[in-house]
Amino acid sequence: MKFLKHLSVLIAVASILLISCEPDDNPCPDAIITVSLDSGTQTYTITAEGLEDIVYGWYVDDNLVETEDLDDLRDDIFGFELEPGTYNICVRAESDICDGSIEICAEVTIEASCLELEFESEEEDDFTYVFTADFEGIEDTEYTWYINGDSVETESIDTNRSHVFDYQFAEEGLYEVCIKATTDCGDVEYCEEIEVGRDPEDCPDLFFTSDLNAAGGYTFTAEFGGMDTITYYWYINEEVVDKENFDGLETDHELEWFFEPGEYVICIVAEVDGCEEEFCEEIFIESDCVDEVSFTSESEDGYFYVFTANFEGLEETRYKWYINEEVVDYENFEDNETDHLMRWTFTPGEYSVCLITYEDDCEEVEFCETIIVEEDCPELSFIATADGEFAYLFEADFAGKEETSYKWTINDEVVDKENYDGVDTDHQLYWQFNPGEYVVCILVETDRCESVEYCQTIIIEGESESCPDLAFTYEQATTGEFIFEADFPGIDTLEWYGWYVDGELVENEGTTNAGDNILQTDLEVGTHEVCIMTETPDCPSGIEYCKTITVDPAGGTCAQMSYTAERDETAPAYTFTADFEERDEVSYEWHVYVNDDYQGGEVRDAGSTDDHSFYWQFESGVVYEICLRAVDESCIDFQECKEFVID
């Protein structure tokens, strides 16, 4: 291998004006110096031009080295051998024609010359070779011969050298023969590989073919001359996996292999009489694993979302749905329904929804989306208008009131409902107060809005009225027949009170009427308001107590169910409380469902002394449906169901 080439010809041109004269009669020559390298002799030739009529001298670094005289056979050439380095070459002269001195200079840098070693080889017989060194500058170069990295002979410049190296190799094989030298450019070398004792054309020309087989693997078949007699190896990624033509081993000249996804190099390697040959082929096996997953999301109301998986390999890939790092659904798992959909009702907040694959021998791949659910709560408001000294009319006044279920409360007691099934809705509350201070509110409680309310404080001035605290209970005797019984403190001394149905007086009671405090009446199918009302000298404005009764077509009475939910801060659980008006007189039951499967519940009978609460502990990440419904079969449509989940 050649490392150096003869130094390129160096040309440095300096163009320097002589001493200035008048422009029109300038007798001074415009001279230049040209410097070049004679690559054959390592001699630098400096040529001056334009000085034909002047006696001048050549200077190297201010040293006079040659004078060019008119009487000489001048050639305007200065030949000089320079060592590597930087020099200032000048031509200087005294000349009358220019009225002064002439000086033309050029700076010249001489770089060190580098050798490119070379030799020729000739085989005398199978083991003896003659090597002849042949390169420029050989006579001035000391160099050494090497065989396989070992120094075997040195050609010194102070000896009578022939530059010929004879060597007899001990045995056949592949050898590296080199000559090396140290120069001003550093260490240089030239090497050749010599095949001793064997013709490379005698080495086997290995080859094999590759095909996919019926079992899903690869079959590699050797196909080269002499394969029945040559011992050789099969390699996969530099590891021996099979041998051919070895004693005690089966030889079929084939390799069958099943690959995992990845990149492989398959080779056959043989060593025959000093020849080491190989033939290789690269195989790339694509992975069956998915490398990218995705899903889309869609919501109609901003709370209920449907997530749809959408990626290549969907039907063959096992994966899970996560919400805030909790598993909420499985896809393509045994004993789990697979529809590649995930449905979820969110409450206000921020959620990370992810799809993550779970395939054997495959890395997990995930895709996530952030869902931000804003509160969608109405801004409640009402107008309060006084009607005389003790009564007020309250009118709801907010956007969306026609679609919003809400309640009226006075001092935290529910006194009316709006937009509830079976309840008359007029978005008004008319109330007669006794003197005192009252907090009147409208209240919304939904999954989206845990509690939103708007309140006003009403202060009633004047003398306090002493009104009785009226109350009654009721039961259904037969189809459509109801028995109402009044029971409140002071009932036996009250002179008069009346029973009203839908605003009509139907019966008088009290000591003056010798009443029995019982109203027995038939109610038609529909919703009715039943009240008792009285006026006394201490309660001149009057007071009433009312209940709403709903009679269904089958003749039963049904209450509109409703309940509140409170999260347990110490456990994954909720306490649910029935809060509808007729809760004491109606038998009702709690039902718990997961994916429409009944999990358990509780029944409370009418008139029971039990409280109206129900406690249930949740499994994390599971969606539960909690329903409150009447026990009466005819009131099956009167129920309230809500979904809950604890992350």
- Average residue pLDDT: 83
- Number of separate strands: 50
Could you describe the largest sheet, including whether it forms a barrel? 4 strands, antiparallel
Helix coverage percent = under 10%
Query: Measured on Cα atoms, how large is the radius of gyration?
Result: 56 Å
Which word captures the global form? elongated
Structural class determined from secondary elements: mainly beta
Descriptive overview:
The structure is a single chain. The chain is mostly beta strands. The chain has no helices and 50 strands. The strands form 14 sheets. The chain has a four-stranded antiparallel sheet with strand order 1-2-3-6, with no helix packed on it. A four-stranded antiparallel sheet has the order 5-4-7-8, with no helix packed on it. A four-stranded antiparallel sheet has the order 12-11-14-15, with no helix packed on it. The radius of gyration is 56 Å and the shape is elongated. The two termini are 74 Å apart.
